[in-house]
Hints:
The chain is mostly beta strands. The protein folds into 2 domains: 1-142, no CATH class; 147-251, no CATH class. The protein has no helices and 24 strands. It has strands at 4-18, 21-34, 68-71, 82-84, 90-92, 105-106, 109-114, 117-124, 129-133, 135-136, 139-140, 147-152, 155-160, 165-171, 173-174, 182-187, 190-192, 199-201, 204-209, 214-220, 222-224, 227-230, 233-237, 243-249. The strands form 7 sheets. The chain has a 6-stranded antiparallel beta sheet with strand order 7-8-9-12-13-14, with no helix packed on it. The chain has a 4-stranded antiparallel beta sheet with strand order 5-4-3-6, with no helix packed on it. A 4-stranded antiparallel beta sheet has the order 15-16-19-20, with no helix packed on it. A hairpin with a 2-residue loop joins strand 10 (135-136) and strand 11 (139-140). The N and C termini lie far apart (57 Å).
Amino acid sequence: MKNLAFKRIGVFAFTLFMGSMLYTQDVTLLYAMDKTSYTGVPYTCVKNLWDLNDTQALSAPAQENDTLYLFCPGIEPDLRCEYRNINNETIIPAGKYGGPYMSKKFVKFTIVNIKGMPGFYAIDRTERILFEIFGYDNGPDYVSKGLFRIVENEKMGFANMDGEIVIKPQFSFVGPFMENDFAVFNEGGRSEGVGEEKFFRGGKWGLINKKGEVVIPPIYDSASPNHLIMGKEWFEITDDGKIGKVVKVSK
Length: 251
């Protein structure tokens, strides 16, 4: 692709507290715009947070005949963005959906903001709403181990990158899957606070695997991504999803 203009449009530092649980992540959000993308060439003109690992689509024209591509007249994705096919025909018109997280390549699903409905939603090619995506760091949840969190009726579960629900929403809260393929979850707690500092208080914590099976029952008072906490004692979670030794005692 010619005449690419790259610009850093934000570095977000987000801290999520859930009792003694702390998540912190820094993300650099970039965009790339082809200055000639409105000459009828079906190039992608927006690169968003969910597409940071996909660089080939920014340097080569589209090849997939059944894929839709995001076109935006401005340098930031907004309500003016639309989806076009390989023939440069508008399939989903500008203004119907909004949000800076609309995927630049729409194959099976994309992420949109829907007018009158707060939050982030996944829609399929027929524009059917598949599920609501858990909001994190002022945007849709990050993908971790191929899965991301979704919400329904104040319960949380997981979906995959094919837009399929793989663990139905059933937990009061669940963390992202870590490198060991396990995630901490909560039963009976509640979310408190607003904005960039949210607390999750109460309930009990346990551990699930990527099938959604409970491998450690929710009997612990609090959690961190790799620890379950009982009283003042922090127990490590082993690579095989079991309770390990005490690695820390809170004061």
